[in-house]
Design goal:
Strands 9, 10, 11, 12, 13, 14, 16, 17, 18, 19, 20, 21 and 22 form a 13-stranded mixed sheet that branches. Strands 1, 2, 3, 4, 5, 6 and 7 form a seven-stranded antiparallel sheet that branches. The chain folds into two domains: 1-202, Surface-adhesin protein E (Lipocalin, Beta Barrel), CATH 2.40.128; 211-465, Carbonic Anhydrase II (Roll), CATH 3.10.200.10. By secondary structure, the protein is an alpha+beta fold. Helix content is 23%, strand content 30%. The structure holds zinc ion (ZN). Residues 224-225, 329, 331, 348, 416 line the site of zinc ion.
Length: 466
């Protein structure tokens, strides 16, 4: 038997690895969720899975939580609806911060819509008295008596079960090896000799661009307004071939968007569509937008509708809610008007909050001096549509896009591209920035006109900083 150890070991190794993987997959996520309500208010309920709380290798606490919404909301990525968002968060009990590792969206209980691994993990401070504070306290408090025992025994059962399987498999394997040794069968199954799988490559310590490791298809998830990652015939794939499904003119232009696909119906039936002519705003003291914009690596794509730049590690907060900056892109001329006035260009900075809500910050541009950040983007324009350019040694600081004066107009609207999803919080900065005629002309070579026409405001309330 000893003479067969080489072959035997590799076979064993393989089995061993499979079972270790199986064992790992059982812990701790599938120990059976025990949802505990942390907060219930009109419209939503927040729960935590007590059984999921565990320490990771760095000693931080990882826990699964979820938000259950009373009414489903539209998922801008799939144009479908979801009502439950599960988030796997890592909590630093000492520094009172947390970051989200993964989100899972469900249409309803058990009806999975999509999963989202967050390559960019943003450390969020926990605010006293807010919901995340409650979650932190729940996660960081030591488990008490019977509950802890129950959780531990549940885990122990799973471990025993998996260990039993491992033992059984090993025994079977041993018997097989013994039999083989006794029969003096020639060594075979060379192909089975495989190394244990390498641990998955981690992005830890890498520059905070989400997208570098992602294939273009998944990356289009972060794509514009049309953050539709699901490649359907005639959609992004079509644009990859140079024939975008929806356009800014002709038969597939804005007037016909709603007829191109059932999911685009809101483009014509919606009552809170964007862009609008911003006028007659209520002049009040608006809360200042808190910008936490940090330099980050970036990548540029021409997605067939606009030039888009994806970044990581930046966010804004407003009214106690944090929105992560996903990407920014451009329209020429500006889509929004202010008192009837159109601008030469606009940058839309698309942010998304934990619960899926979208906030778009608009920075208007008028002809003037060259803009250094835009120049960096133009310098890195891809040669082909839907190809990504990720400069390895360059970073951009999105804060450079912002004007000095951060007063703004705000109203509720929609994405300005199909599927024209509503419920988007618009923040339009009042002070325009400058862009050179040459820079404007470069964008014009790619997109002469990529602005959706004005939409009726239907008496929506507009507020503005006074
Ligand atoms: Zn836009």
């Amino acid at each position: 038997m000893m003479s067969f150890t080489t072959d035997g070991t590799s076979g064993m190794h393989r089995y061993f690895w499979r079972l270790v993987t199986l064992l790992a997959s059982l812990l701790p996520a599938t120990t059976g969720a025990t949802w505990q309500v942390i907060s219930a208010e009109p419209g939503k309920r927040v729960e935590i899975d007590r059984a999921s709380v565990r320490k990771d290798e760095s000693g931080k606490s990882v826990a699964l939580g979820r938000i259950i919404l009373e009414k489903p909301i539209v998922d801008p990525k799939t144009s479908s609806y979801y009502r439950i968002v599960e988030a796997l968060n890592r909590y630093d009990c000492a520094s009172r911060s947390y970051s989200t590792l993964k989100r899972t969206y469900y249409k309803s209980e058990g009806d999975l819509l999509r999963e989202e691994d967050l390559k960019v993990q943003i450390e969020m401070p926990v605010r006293t008295g807010m919901l995340d504070d409650k979650l932190l306290r729940e996660v960081c408090r030591p488990k008490s008596g019977p509950e802890a025992v129950a959780a531990a025994s549940k885990i122990a059962d799973k471990v025993n079960q998996a260990a039993g399987e491992l033992r059984k498999a090993n025994e079977a394997l041993l018997q097989k090896e013994v039999k083989r040794a006794n029969l003096q069968t020639p060594v075979m199954e060379k192909a089975e000799t495989e190394a244990p799988p390498a641990p998955p490559a981690r992005l830890i310590g890498h520059p905070p661009v989400a997208s570098t490791a992602r294939p273009p298809a998944a990356a289009s998830a972060r794509s514009h307004a049309a953050r539709s990652p699901t490649i359907k015939p005639g959609d992004s794939v079509a644009s990859a071939r140079g024939t975008p499904y929806w356009t800014y003119e002709g038969d597939s232009g804005p007037d016909n968007w709603s007829k191109l696909k059932p999911e685009y119906a809101t483009c014509s039936s919606g009552k809170r569509q964007s862009p609008i002519d911003i006028r007659d705003g209520l002049r009040v003291d608006l809360e200042a937008i808190q910008f936490v914009y940090r330099p980050s690596q970036f990548r540029v794509v021409d997605n067939g509708h606009t030039v888009q730049v994806e970044v990581g590690g930046s966010r804004i907060s407003l009214l106690g809610k944090a929105y992560e900056l996903l990407q920014f892109h451009f329209h020429r001329p500006s889509e929004e008007r202010v008192n009837g006035k159109s601008f030469d260009m606009v940058a839309h900075l698309v942010h998304q909050a934990e619960d899926g809500r979208i906030a778009v910050l608009a920075v208007l541009f008028e002809k003037g001096l060259e803009n250094p950040l835009i120049q960096t983007v133009w310098n890195n324009l891809p040669l082909e549509k839907n190809d990504y350019v990720t400069p390895p040694d360059l970073s951009i600081d999105v804060a450079q896009l912002l004007p000095e004066n951060r007063s703004y107009y705000t109203y509720m609207g929609s994405l300005t591209t199909p599927p024209c999803t509503e419920g988007v919080l618009w923040l339009v900065l009042k002070q325009p920035q400058q862009i050179s005629a040459e820079q404007l002309a470069i964008f014009g070579r790619l997109y002469r006109q990529n602005a959706r026409p004005l939409q009726p405001s239907f008496g929506r309330i507009i507020k503005e900083s006074r």
